[in-house]
Write a structure and sequence with these properties.
Blueprint: E1 3-9, H1 13-29, E2 35-41, H2 48-59, E3 63-67, H3 73-83, E4 88-92, E5 96-98, H4 103-112, E6 118-124, H5 136-141, H6 146-149, E7 161-165, H7 166-170, H8 189-199, E8 204-214, H9 223-244, H10 253-269, H11 283-303
Parallel strand pairs: 1-2, 1-4, 2-3, 6-8
Antiparallel strand pairs: 4-7, 5-8, 6-7
Helix pairs in contact: 1-2, 9-11, 10-11
């Protein structure tokens, strides 16, 4: 088996249905690779099992349905890797839509031929999700890969469209860090996973020809969601620094948190219409919310008596405070 496509999903039966429809279309036209499709249901309470069963029965391509009851995207992906049989693991989100029939071959061949140990494919945002007020930072937070396309940043893994050698992935202790990512701290699990591979000498590349549309639910553009995302990103950055062994700030976190909070609200008061906007959250606001969350997480880490990186690295037994869902 050349490729295992792993889709972790939780309570997104409708978007998963559209993604599966597109995946089956791609698989039927893929000639150069043998592939399997795994859907890891991360404790869904909607119609996800029925959707997977229907597509498997009506499209003639078997889907391996796997149930993972402990919530956490990293846990679901790790379970998928444990079950997968392919030489390359492909990860896509349940709202990722390949834009052409040769997507899978374009994404996986650079890994199969040894050019890279892992790659990220191009991720494009559909026009209906774009807003005039958005900056490149907003689009980055929506998983756009435009910064890789223009060469301003080295490529890192993005779970909406990535592939990694099975041998390289299995060499990372614990796989995806289960205390990071959706359902846990919020984000950072793919970045840490990529860092672990690079640390072991593996090359990570970017494949612009392997393109997907990231058709996320428009409700995620709400102002409430942007601010919640900023909090989760700030918290995840603190835990990511901890796992990487970066020295955490020694002091002044409470003072910085109070000052940043004060700056945040002074800026908000000057823009009274901002608080009533249904979607917009300017980047200065998101950065300050994220910094407050970072400071709070650093204080939590230190309150637990933790300093540098856990002795066991990813997968060791020190848990961060439970993330609010």
């Amino acid at each position: 088996m050349d490729v295992s496509i792993i889709i972790a999903t939780r309570n997104r039966a409708q978007s998963l249905s559209i993604t599966l429809h597109r995946m089956f279309s791609v698989l039927k036209q893929t000639r150069r690779l043998s592939a399997e499709l795994l859907v890891v249901d991360n404790a869904s309470t909607d119609r996800t099992p029925e959707v997977v069963r229907w597509y498997s029965e009506h499209f003639g391509i078997p889907v391996r349905y796997i149930r993972k009851n402990r919530v956490g995207c990293s846990r679901a992906r790790n379970r998928g890797m444990a079950e997968a049989k392919g030489k390359v693991f492909v990860f896509v989100d349940d709202d990722s839509m390949p834009t052409h029939a040769y997507w899978l071959e374009q994404l996986c061949l650079p890994v199969l031929d040894g050019s890279f140990s892992g790659v990220t494919g191009k991720i494009v945002l559909p026009p209906h999700l774009l807003r005039p007020w958005m900056t490149d930072w907003h689009r980055l937070w929506m998983a756009s890969t435009e910064e890789y396309e223009n060469g301003t940043s080295e490529p890192w893994f993005i779970g909406a469209n990535m592939a990694v050698s099975a041998d390289a992935a299995r060499a990372v202790p614990g796989g995806f860090e289960e205390r990071l990512g959706p359902g846990a701290a919020g984000y950072g699990e793919e970045t840490l996973f990529c860092h672990e591979l690079r640390k072991r000498g593996h090359r990570i590349g970017f494949v612009p020809s392997a393109e997907v549309l990231h058709c996320m639910d428009p409700v995620r553009l709400s102002r409430t969601n942007w601010l919640g995302q900023a909090m989760r990103r700030g918290r995840s950055c603190a835990w990511q620094d901890y796992f990487w062994g970066k020295p955490l700030p020694e002091g002044g976190m409470r003072r910085e948190m109070v000052l940043t909070f004060s700056q945040l609200w002074r800026s908000r008061i000057k823009r009274p219409g901002l608080l009533l906007h249904p979607e917009m959250a300017p980047i200065w606001e998101l950065m300050r919310v994220a910094r407050i969350a970072y400071c709070r997480a650093v204080l939590q880490i230190k309150a637990e008596g933790l300093g540098g990186r856990p002795a066991g690295g990813p997968g060791s037994a020190v848990d961060p405070p439970k993330a609010k869902q």
